[in-house]
Design brief:
Elements (H helix, E strand, L loop, with lengths): L3 H12 L5 H5 L20 H11 L4 H15 L3 H4 L5 E4 L9 E5 L2 E9 L2 E9 L16 H6 L7 E5 L5 E7 L1 H9 L1 H15 L12 H7 L3
Antiparallel strand pairs: 1-2, 2-3, 3-4, 4-6, 5-6
């Protein structure tokens, strides 16, 4: 009998091939949303504008927006129709790790870009079962070789285990390696799986910190 993780991976293989966008998006229970973004976007706070302008001056800004655009295109279902209510992106959030941007859904962090001197490092929160040898959520079964093979420079990837069982934090350094991870077919399926899990849990708890200016760059507007 398949474990829950193996079953999810089998479903992902059939529902989310990299060349079939409608397949994986159909698994999103709110994909029929028809509402566009809220009028609230026209009343950005002075704090939000100031943070966005500060981000534009950061040496990593070009890579940040390139990576966010790739993430929006590949990793979020119907991103414009689900923006803010089911996922959000915050700009220079005031947390101790001092990220540049962070993407959230429900109560969960999904993806974060952080400064690494003048370069970038990233944090992906994912289901551990998508990275184990047997599809189980067991840390001892982690497929270390796969993680290293996702990118050309194995030294750029590391990991930690979330405080909740069954979740892995994948940490990647350098814009080129982050981009490679997001374009690896198996890693991409894992990102989509986790994002769908948390977007399907209901309304986003981080709506108030959503930065429409960053989202516009992220979604190519």
């Amino acid at each position: 009998m398949l474990t829950a993780g193996a079953a999810r991976r089998a479903c992902a293989s059939s529902c989310m091939p990299t060349n079939s966008e409608p397949g994986w998006k159909a698994r999103y229970s709110c994909a029929t949303l028809t509402s566009a973004r809220s009028p609230w976007n026209s009343r950005l706070s002075n704090t939000g504008v100031a943070r966005f302008e500060r981000l534009l001056r950061r040496p990593q800004a070009e890579d940040v927006f390139d990576l966010l655009q790739l993430y929006g295109e590949r990793c979020l279902p119907v991103p414009r129709r689900t923006e803010r209510y089911y996922w959000s992106v915050s700009c220079l959030p005031s947390t101790s790790d001092k990220p540049l941007v962070r993407v959230n859904a429900s109560w969960m962090e999904l993806f974060t870009l952080l400064p690494d001197d003048d370069e970038l490092r990233s944090r992906f929160i994912l289901h551990l079962s998508d990275f184990t040898l047997d599809g189980s959520p067991e840390p001892d079964h982690l497929d270390h070789a796969f993680l290293e093979q996702c990118i050309d420079r194995p030294e750029d990837v590391s990991h930690a285990f979330w405080r909740t069982n069954g979740i892995i934090i994948v940490k990647i350094r350098g814009a080129a390696s982050i981009r490679q991870f997001m374009t690896n077919p198996r890693a991409l399926r894992a990102i989509r799986n986790f994002n769908l899990t948390h977007m399907n849990r209901g309304r986003n708890a981080y709506q108030a910190s959503h930065c429409y200016s960053v989202a516009d760059r992220m979604l190519g507007d």
